[in-house]
Design a protein that fits this description.
The protein has 19 helices and 2 strands. It has 535 residues and is mainly alpha-helical. Among the domains are: 194 residues, Up-down Bundle (Growth Hormone, Chain: A), CATH 1.20.1250; 68 residues; 65 residues.
């Protein structure tokens, strides 16, 4: 069944694509809020939860442009439906998964494919189905849907999890995507495919390279940096983390040569040369990536700290995230509407200052076994303002420097950049947090005035996981350690968890600083002339 759009309101298909956008935008936040329940009910470790967060963003980023190319070649409706079906099954698998491994490498993997097919199809459906004012309204609605997802999804998912458990939240998400699938069949019109050479090999090389790079970073806390810890294999006697990162970079670098050749032969590529050779485009992609590097790393770190370290609820985490999300959305819409005359370079530099101040604020907001709510919320507001400022400029910086053909493809490239940087942010900052805790705790115990038996026990543990104090206390009680020494261990663990959390914030601060040189080449002239007083 399909509705004739000439006789029906244009908002029927628009509702469906907006529901799709809300679902894919809010999905990862639901996974983050499941952290404590994955640990409690599935016996997952913190690094496994970190990887579950990463896989979706990584795969979506790697395949997003491919999904757009496939939509052009096969028809956007067909690819949209395929994506919705993947998302439905991906969420459902999480509900029935017996362990975190199945959630990560089956559920999240399928969900990543689904989002990579569905998100670019949303833009293709709007471009193909609407004209004039309706198209402008449709793009605005999809942008608003993303903002709604960032606020509503964490809050609603947090409340569902705290009352009914994480499975209920993922049942709700699977039903959500089933509604999208059925609605798309009925309301979205068929869209005729166009001739396009799809870059299959480039997609495979990109995916392999990114998986190696991000997996290497995310596993440092478990496999080790140089000396092998709990590694599945060794490379010339060292942990496989760094070799895997280097292998990923080599594959990605070689793929750039393949992409150049593919574009010369076919006129299209996953990564057009204009994106690599145009300074403003590169700088604009730095801005785009930084937004979601901060968002991904911040979301992971805050939810981990509140739910694991502070033993708070999913709702507590969701409320904290809203303090970051609301100013982000407000400033991303306010600046282009009211202050489009401001220099993009100046806006991005000021946004960097807000983001850096936020990291400093969170550094002092984190406490042993808890956090200062007021200072945390205030710091997250600063972070939201910073990300909102970046978001207000990123799209125009890229699109304004490209020819019309490449500008049309820029949406997919930017979407890929967002997801890849988000995965990288979670991997790098998460690795510093988890590896830092393991290393500092072992060092502190060796220097502590406790029995050699306890020291030998913890020294024999290859990795010290991030868990709640209650979990540590229950674990120690099974070994009949002396009560005074148990309290000393708990105190050391609290102190070193705080150190590790602050190391992670310093890592995030450094990552922000490393992006600032890329802002030097941004436009200094606003997108419009400054209105005259009294005009």
């Amino acid at each position: 069944m399909q509705i004739n759009l000439e006789k029906k309101p244009f908002w029927l298909p628009l509702i469906i694509v907006c529901l799709a956008q809300i679902g894919t935008s809010g999905d990862n936040s639901v996974v983050s809020l499941s952290t404590q329940q994955f640990i409690t009910h599935l016996g997952a470790s913190m690094d496994q939860v970190q990887l579950a967060n990463i896989v979706y963003s990584l795969l979506t980023g790697a395949l997003m442009v491919f999904g757009g190319m496939l939509g052009i070649a096969k028809g956007f409706k067909k690819i949209f439906l395929l994506g919705a079906l993947f998302c439905f099954f991906g969420e459902l698998i999480v509900v029935f998964a017996p362990d975190i491994f199945v959630i990560t490498w089956v559920g999240r993997l399928i969900m990543g494919f689904g989002a990579a097919f569905m998100v670019p199809s949303v833009l293709g459906i709007i471009s193909s189905s609407f004209d004039g004012t309706k198209k402008v309204l449709a793009f605005g609605a999809v942008g608003s849907a993303t903002g709604i997802a960032v606020i509503i999804m964490p809050l609603s998912a947090g409340m569902i999890m705290d009352t009914l458990g994480y499975k209920a939240a993922f049942v709700a998400l699977s039903i959500w995507f089933l509604i999208v699938f059925v609605g798309a069949i009925i309301f979205i019109p068929s869209i005729k495919p166009n001739t396009m050479k799809v870059d299959y090999w480039g997609t495979i090389f990109t995916a392999i390279g990114l998986v190696c790079f991000i997996l290497g970073f995310s596993k440092i806390s478990v496999w080790g940096l140089i000396e092998p810890l709990d590694a599945p294999f060794e490379v010339f006697g060292i942990a496989p983390s760094i070799p895997l990162i280097i292998l990923g970079l080599v594959i990605l670098a070689l793929n750039l040569f393949y992409e150049k050749s593919f574009e010369q032969k076919n006129g299209v590529a996953l990564i057009p040369q204009s994106f690599l050779k145009t300074r403003q485009v590169r700088n604009g992609l730095y801005v785009t990536g930084l937004i979601f590097l901060i968002f991904g790393a911040g979301f992971f770190l805050i939810t981990s700290w509140i739910m694991v370290v502070s033993e708070g609820t999913s709702t507590d985490s969701a409320i904290a995230i809203v303090f970051m999300a609301v100013p982000m959305i407000v400033f991303s819409f306010l600046l282009p509407k009211k202050f489009a005359y401001l220099s993009p370079k100046m806006v991005c530099m000021v946004s960097s200052v807000f983001s850096l101040l936020s990291c400093i604020g969170l550094f002092f907001a984190f406490e042993e076994g808890g956090y200062n709510r007021g200072l945390t919320y205030f710091s997250l507001v600063l972070l939201g303002i910073g990300m909102g400022g970046f978001s207000s400029q990123s799209v125009m910086i890229v699109a304004s420097a490209l020819n019309p053909a490449d500008a049309a493809q820029s949406g997919g490239i930017q979407a890929s950049t967002r997801n890849i940087w988000q995965a990288a942010g979670v991997a790098i900052v998460g690795a510093v947090f988890l590896f830092g805790l393991s290393a500092t705790f072992k060092t502190s115990l060796l220097q502590a005035p406790i029995s050699s038996t306890i020291k030998e026990y913890f020294e024999s543990q290859k990795v010290i996981p991030l868990v709640s104090l209650k979990t540590i206390k229950d674990k120690l009680s099974t070994y009949n350690f002396d009560a005074d020494e148990t309290n000393k261990i708990l105190e050391i663990y609290k102190q070193d968890t705080l150190k590790a959390g602050r190391y992670a914030l310093i890592a995030l601060l450094i990552l922000i600083l490393l992006h600032i040189p890329g802002f030097m080449g941004l436009p200094t002239k606003g997108w419009v002339e400054k209105p005259k007083k009294g005009a």
